[in-house]
Amino acid sequence: MKLSFKLLPVLIIVGSLLLLFLVNISLGSIQIPFTKVIASIFSHGDGHDTYYSIIWQLRIPKAITCVVAGSALSIAGLLMQTLFRNPLAGPDVLGLSSGASLMVAFVLLLGTSAASYLPVVSPWSLALAASLGSGTIFLLVIAVAHRVRDNTSLLIIGLMIAAASGSFVSVLQYLSKAQDLQAFVIWTLGSVGGTNWNEILILVLLLIIGGSLALTSVKSLNAWLLGDNYAQSLGIDIKKSRQKIVLATSLLAGGVTAFCGPIAFVGLAVPHLVRLLVPTTNHKILIPMVMMGGAILLLLCDILTQMPGSATILPLNAITSMIGAPVVIWVVMRSKGVKM
Amino acid sequence: MMNTSPLFIKNLCIGYPGLNNHVLFDNLNLSLYNGQLVCFMGPNGIGKSTLIRTLAGAQKPLSGEIKGIGNKNVSVVLTERVNAGMMTARELVSFGRYPYLGWSVRMTEADHSKIDEAVQQVRIHNLLDKSIHELSDGQMQMVMIARALAQDTPVLLLDEPTAHLDLNNRVEIMNLLRRLAKENNKAILVSTHELDLALQTADLVWLATSQKSIRVGISEDLVLDGTFDEVFRFKGFDLKTGRVKQEPFRHTGIQLIGDGHAYLWTKNALERNGFHIDPNSNLTIKIKTTTEELTTWTGFSNGEKTFLSIAELLSALINIIPNAQSLKSVTEIK
Predict the structure, then answer these.
(1) CA B15, CA B2: separation in Å to the nearest integer?
(2) What is the ipTM of this complex?
């Protein structure tokens, strides 16, 4: 009885993940019958088959990107919410995405303009730059959080840091060439469609590293919920585990931002939505659940960007914000203020 | 039998490091003993919480030595309230086992039985499945104590565990701590503001003085030799009688005849209202308790009036003696 009660939400999550993955690759600007979709997945196409090419070169990479990016952002959000003990923390809220954007803007906008001086823009350098960008902002926010003890001030400071790095991005945009600018603006709208297999490989690698760092920090993450002093009295090395969390979060948020743009609200909203279904504070359960939850949410958002029956694709961030913003309002109203 | 000390400090200096070190206590030499409940008292802001955090290992001392620091020897209950969403009381208690668990926080049978034992000692079975934000302050404190017990340490440190609680909960917690010290042979240090409660339950008192040191003694000794008065500089509280000092502003003496609790509480009410007890006064009040537990008060000088409650007696007294009038005027009115 007790087992089935715990198992049910897990089954729901795994089931909807598989279902949405299939739905996601079945939909697109070109209509492909569902049987052909299934057939293409399991066939060894000869490259001349159009359906096969569309499925394997466009749709499956996009769906996998949704899964990986959604998982990565949601773990990053969960880690930040626990680290700051603030339910409204998230990679985009506290400026990590903006930090990554700034670095990506440097590489993209100045990279091509000054190609003769800089090394070639590769997905690796992009991921590295973005992770460095989010890591720097994260450390900055932690340093500030150490001085302001209350959650509201922390959020305001995070927003200000985001705004400041955003303004640097604007300056870079102003200075850059028109054709670079267009690519960058499209990137800022968030997209899971532009990734190739090479980039997906990097994303998966970052997810494995970040995810393992998070999973091996389960003990400190749980103990952190009681506050620094209690965690320390229970034998947690605060400094060391904090470094581990910063590294994990920066890699996860930075990597996703490098290839998919600053995707809003996923990291913030998913942990709350998952806790509705699996009411626990144990990170050993939360981390895998949140990974699947993030994958589901991003697959769903990507499906919604696809206007049915037309080739028009809406910006991903428009959809994630439509879902994420009400979640934030609900969290604030439920907790009667910004508390955890 | 030699009593061993599971936690002691030598030449300890604590405070906050900085350009000019902010020293709170200097050259402390103290020990906690198994089976002893020590109450740690002192004015606000003198550094009680800092010492407790230092002993718990959450803060580094400026200098000196603490023997016995470590999460398998010392568990702690702090003033900060745990505020973690949908955590249940059971989950919170189980955190006590964390020092014994690996990175994957897998608990063994032994861990579960330690948790059950802690729950048993604090008697909070009925709270276990509640979410912690549903708990009252008193219940939360009991759960935090259970969490510390689950940590299974010889030493238990508690920072203001009775703050914000009502009298009943305060007594319950102090009695629990006393029981844990006696029955489980724990060494317990409690910082508290509850003077009366501490005096009645502590085996030993640590009294923080303004000279950055801590005076140690049995509470009765510290009361009689005036150390408490010196530290707290009581304003209107007479520690030796254990009561608030009353000003007899009505200048009216009353001869009170009676005994037992009824006598004590009548005296209390009269003194609070500015009367004083004077065995030679013409104004006499007799307390009678009948066999049916019915108490009556009969006054005044010639005893023709009977009251069924102290409130009735008081309002009659205050009516005929509006303010600082002498007994003489009372007789004149009569």
Answers:
(1) 33
(2) 0.81
